[in-house]
Description:
The protein has two domains: 6-101, 2-Layer Sandwich (Double Stranded RNA Binding Domain); 109-177, CATH 2.40.50.140. It is 21% helix and 37% strand. The protein is built from two helices and eleven strands; from the N terminus they run βαβββββαβββββ. It has helices spanning 16-29, 79-101; strands spanning 6-10, 38-44, 48-49, 53-54, 57-64, 67-72, 115-122, 127-131, 137-141, 158-166, 169-177. The chain has a five-stranded mixed barrel. Strands 1-2-5-6 form a four-stranded mixed sheet, covered by helices on one side. It has a two-stranded antiparallel sheet with strand order 3-4. β1, α1 (16-29) and β2 (38-44) form a beta-alpha-beta unit. The relative contact order is 0.11.
Amino acid sequence: xxxxxxxxxxxxxxxxxxxxxxxxxxxxxxxxxxxxxxxxxxxxxxxxxxxxxxxxxxxxxxxxxxxxxxxxxxxxxxxxxxxxxxxxxxxxxxxxxxxxxxxxxxxxxxxxxxxxxxxxxxxxxxxxxxxxxxxxxxxxxxxxxxxxxxxxxxxxxxxxxxxxxxxxxxxxxxxxxxxx
Length: 180
């Protein structure tokens, strides 16, 4: 970190042990992204409820080149859980930011799922079969078709699907109609 860690409190005083946990977690963030410019942590108790007890808010602000990552999780009655949850979320956001900087892109499974065409359709019974390019038949149910598209399917319609092994053989668990 280019600037030293800044720990601020509101309506609460931190023990040395709690401050040390924050320092350890903040320094560990640099293992996920080594260009952190600054890290500010705010620990506060916004309200003292008689019925609910003390709830701790932990906010983590991380400055990186060209961006600022701000993490604020739900309040927690356990200070150490609030610290852990906030730093876990900060770690995930740093990893995501780092991946975007390296040009990594998440690939969604459905973009690479196989295509086929509707071979048989039984609208009265709410199911049909998809024929794959290699000639296999895959069962699918009305509920597997995205966007309520079952009623618009017809034989030979092209579809993209995700296959799983069912009780009675292969079945499509997600069916996406392609084209018009």
